[in-house]
Amino acid sequence: xxxxxxxxxxxxxxxxxxxxxxxxxxxxxxxxxxxxxxxxxxxxxxxxxxxxxxxxxxxxxxxxxxxxxxxxxxxxxxxxxxxxxxxxxxxxxxxxxxxxxxxxxxxxxxxxxxxxxxxxxxxxxxxxxxxxxxxxxxxxxxxxxxxxxxxxxxxxxxxxxxxxxxxxxxxxxxxxxxxxxxxxxxxxxxxxxxxxxxxxxxxxxxxxxxxxxxxxxxxxxxxxxxxxxxxxxxxxxxxxxxxxxxxxxxxxxxxxxxxxxxxxxxxxxxxxxxxxxxxxxxxxxxxxxxxxxxxxxxxxxxxxxxxxxxxxxxxxxxxxxxxxxxxxxxxxxxxxxxxxxxxxxxxxxxxxxxxxxxxxxxxxxxxxxxxxxxxxxxxxxxxxxxxxxxxxxxxxxxxxxxxxxxxxxxxxxxxxxxxxxxxxxxxxxxxxxxxxxxxxxxxxxxxxxxxxxxxxxxxxxxxxxxxxxxxxxxxxxxxxxxxxxxxxxxxxxxxxxxxxxxxxxxxxxxxxxx
Length: 514
Description:
Layout: H1 3-28, H2 36-43, H3 46-51, H4 61-67, E1 71-81, H5 96-101, E2 123-134, E3 140-143, H6 145-148, E4 153-158, E5 161-164, E6 166-171, E7 176-180, E8 203-208, E9 216-227, E10 239-242, E11 254-256, E12 262-269, E13 277-281, H7 282-294, E14 301-302, E15 305-309, H8 312-318, E16 326-331, H9 336-339, E17 347-351, E18 354-355, H10 359-369, E19 374-381, E20 384-391, E21 393-394, E22 413-415, E23 420-424, H11 427-433, E24 442-447, E25 463-467, E26 470-471, H12 475-483, E27 490-498, E28 504-512
Antiparallel strand pairs: 1-2, 1-4, 2-3, 3-7, 4-5, 6-7, 8-9, 8-11, 9-10, 10-13, 11-12, 12-13, 14-21, 15-16, 16-17, 17-18, 17-19, 19-20, 22-23, 23-24, 24-25, 25-26, 25-27, 27-28
């Protein structure tokens, strides 16, 4: 081999070795370009996506200093006469109000004379406190309704002064109250932001007066949105959950974003937990503020139906392509929806051309139209859609309902795969449990924990009156409907609970036949 050939071979081997070394080094440092499969996998990595949006921890000092002058404390005094024979204590149960708002102020026990006879009723004063915030230079102040509920007098503490407050308007359904003070000069105020723009994980700050600790600042993030707690009118509950500390006395104070805007009103806590607080979205306030300011109360449009969101199984059972819409579970007698021909089992897909994705969309739109307005509903029934015009009425104040306590007896039938036992509605059952004569069906006497209906709130005492839209008169009709279902098909059960006062609480349950 010639010298030239040897040199060429040596050069080739040197270059080859350098290339191999470079590839090994680049692979070890993860510098090689990934293949298409690796790219697709990397795009699914939440960790990689999160690393592209790293967030430095902010300082809230400037924000707190700027908004502090617009935050107030509320003192509400109630003067009442204690009735004769009143005793302290209670039933021993858990007060739902205290569970979310903390202990109530307790009135003293009625004093007694030495001979054991009670004195005449005396006046007692109970004081409640909370927080609030100024929303205009003219002295308008927002707080929670429960802070000033039943108050004989209300004072607002701002700066180093107390101002008597006029209650301009209240709305129990959303737990919002509007006050007015006259400070004699324009006040620093907070602007209202957009709670719909909030995202889970956004920073928020709470300022208030927890436990009479004036102007306490706490911070946290938005933990969740759209929570319903059942502590007020469930139709309007749309709480924002946060881990910013909210304590007894924070009620009515502002939840503030990083731009210094109010995005929610601190309202409730889980008294038995830490870092779980709830606030009313500020967009709820913005919707009713004109009525509170001008009329002192809120009037809302009303359809007179009970609705729920659709889940995937229900959408399949109704033959819908997705879960958009509001499923009608009940229609009140003599209600606007009843007059328009709306029936339970209908799915409302749109109102006045506005698509309905969830029940919240329908409730908010109808409420905002007010009484006597006419709306057009797009209704899905039996595979077809139709338009229904409804003239709204004013929404009544919702009352409390007692839970059903029906305990049926007697014989009946059972279906093993459903995991329930049931029987006909005979005369003794109707009389003993107050079941109206116009309610037909079978009454459930037992529900196994493994039953597919258990997760859909069917319990002993539930009455099943329809299966797939077919009326059920008794056990024979029920068993015929169940046994006639094809394997894999969906069964829609229309059921209800009957309350102790005879009130009906209807609902749908959907299961798939094995």
